[in-house]
């Protein structure tokens, strides 16, 4: 079973041979549209027919996914004489690094739009609604200064890929990996010679700006992310002997360390796996019961993901030095134990570049993990700018490190 937390959920791409004159796209009006949008969202599960699906509960706030970004919009599509809402799309704009393969250490920033949350009613597909929603969101993005737009989807989601690549002219850009680890009933031990240090938001910002200066998609407003109430903190793992001659407040890096931040997505939305057979459900329940009764066995139990649950997103993941992989595994054990103490947290989720060396140090269950696909489009192909080569010459020469903004999840 593969969980898909990406937002695209189209069962087929649009057929532009059908008329679109009756489609009206406008901005979301919370007072007027909330109930209709919630009803539309409730009809949409992620997954293929006959397979387990993933339902998303936005907990009564249709724009919860984009509220934490300063510049965002939600559009709705009305169809027919009655003006029924048959489609929605969300988008936000931020300034991020585009990667820097030159000799200068200074980050290169570009304004970019992120497209997410596209929904089309199952009764109104093949009418051009999805395409029109994307086009209107792109126009809003250009008006607000975005040079590029990008979206993310499960690499196996053929319908979403067909829509964005063949209908909306996006190009396949990056293929990061989404790594998922269940939160078990037992605690995971942290090695006795390793210390976990909490890093202040100010120091975390300084560290991250240096670590990810040459990466892609590192947000310029990282300080707002680290100060956000959804951020549980930034934590660094170091050998205990390092604490004798390293002061975290000095701003310098220890010789070997691992670092990450923890984002609490369960305050934004919750998930539920549906469509699992009774046999699989019973097997999963059995692992949990055994793990709960005999935690010293450390049974790799499957948490209850068949009721509404939340997850922690681990981001800003980085390690250095010979002990880096071992330190990173200890950090994940520490984060796991945080989730273990939270009755609503069922999973730890991370997303890293496909070729990022840190990928091998991250614990995960391959059955729960999947390959992501990021597609990108230059919004004004006639405009010449210094960042024109991001999609062209850097495809093969770019950094393997992608910074995943937790607000995108």
UniProtKB/TrEMBL annotation:
Molecular-function GO term, any one: acyltransferase activity, transferring groups other than amino-acyl groups
Residue ranges of domain N-acetyltransferase in the record: 23-191
One Pfam family matching this protein: Acetyltransf_1
Domain of life per record: Eukaryota
InterPro entries, A to Z: Acyl_CoA_acyltransferase (IPR016181), GNAT_dom (IPR000182), Plant_NAT (IPR052810)
Protein name per UniProt: N-acetyltransferase domain-containing protein
Organism: Solanum bulbocastanum
